[in-house]
Task: structure prediction
Amino acid sequence: MTKGEMESVEVFTSEGKGRGLKAQKEFLPGDVIFAEPAYAAVVFDSLTHVVCHTCFKRQERLHRCGQCKFAHYCDRTCQRAAWLNHKNECSAIKKHGKAPTENIRLAARIMWKIEREGSGLSEGCLVSIDDLQNHVDNFGEEEKKELHADVQSFLEFWPSQSQQFGMQYISHVFGVISCNGFTLSDQRGLQAVGVGIFPNLCQVNHDCWPNCTVIFNNGKIELRALSKISPGDELSVSYVDFLNVSEERRKQLKKQYYFDCACEHCKKQIKDDLMLAVKQGESKPSAETVKEVVQFSKDTLEKINKARIEGLYHEVVKMCRECLKKQEPVLGDTNIYLLRILSIASEVLSYLQMFEEAADYAKKMVDGYMKIYHPNNAQLGMAVMRAGVTHWHAGLIEAGHGLICKAYAILLITHGPSHPITKDLEVMRVQTEMELRMFQQNEFMYYKMREAALKNQKIQVMPEPSNETSPGLFHKKE
Result:
């Protein structure tokens, strides 16, 4: 954080909530409140060969560290930038014989930084690593076993010539990682690729209907305002996806972050009625019918997850169609079980290039999302963007351009104009606007030119569907 950014926020202590951050000046939607580099960060174990260990960009060809043969970088610039943090790690990996897991690597990077700089406040940090919450006392038996195993693995990896830390302090660092590890995404914000510790971000408390969002952009996290924030207002972000009833969100927050959510939306169960909506009118279904359809939806979602893992996408489509046939006469347009099936169906059908059917489902999904999500929600923006691209591919240029414009307006606030995904969307917006003009001038010629273009150049295949939604805010070890 720069001096100006540090002066724009203030750490405070509130009864029952612990620490938090307050705004010291007014912010408008889309304003960057602060941008923070990682105190320490690592690439996930499964992606160490395809993601740069400095900037976290996915690249097809990466340069490998000639010493440890483990770390990978975009180029010499990224490798030089990484050396301060990689130097100790490099020699430790060589001596150990192999790289340890991501949790061990992250803990080691944190402690090498403490060895270099001390455990007090680092430059630009509002709080030290020592003062971050670890919640170790709240761990259950299984979590305590995992913690003990991590500590033992760390001690085996940690070099004898480095500063030695006590067991209690090592446990504290692993607790901090477990509760405060922030998910790092790739350059387009579509895939989780690593985990890092950002001390200032850790001070921002949760609210299911927050006034801020967090985006990983150009190697830093940005805390961005979603609505107007006045001086003295507490800053908040959502640790979980809002698309769940209040009871389920509270359970998830209690399990992962050890607190009882007391936000307005949970206390008053705001929007729960929309998320559990059923068809109204003369043909309103019975409570028993609703219960049966909801249970069928849950069972289908489990089967779909297994089929997606195995890449059985035509089977996924078949299950979605069967489930939607049962859901549509019973569940309301904003029911979360209907929306989940619509989301999966539209994504998988787009991948299979069955764009017209995918577009129909995507439109229904977006209509439901618009009634539930905060109007400046990042996940809403990404869903609208996906729906717009699907309509565009289906040749539905008017609807496609309209959705892409809506998505662009949301992402300008949640991601900002410099984020790669926003830049991609701006290119799409300009392209669809040009095509829309052509369509409005001569519909027949537009379709003839489109048909000719598709013959000469195959339509770009959509990304392979993933079980993972947009990267969540905090990374919790499973």
The CA atoms of residues 12 and 20 lie 5 Å apart.
